[in-house]
Amino acid sequence: MKKKVVAPAKESSLLKDGLPHQAFAIVGDPRQPDTWQLPHHTRQVSRAAQGKIGYEHTVDWLLLEKAVLLLSRFGDEGRRVTADPELIIQAARHLAGHYRKAGRQVPDSLCVLI
Prior knowledge:
The protein is mainly α.
């Protein structure tokens, strides 16, 4: 009887809540979905990762605003994202970039982090 060998999942096939790692502002390890935090793109982000559309077309502004709250000093209803300070700063810069590219004002709560 042959033993079935299971290949590790490809990075591109991993999902968290139906989203690839490109949809998250914090990605501790692209191969470990439990390290991904702050989703802020639609499922169309998979098409953007393939170069079929631009990432800016996949931003979910409601999720992005929630991500900003979770990064902020006071959090969202007292909950704040838990991550290394370096990852928090990188996420704040990333999210601020979405605001800038869309011609929107960057929230003050992001400005103090970047």
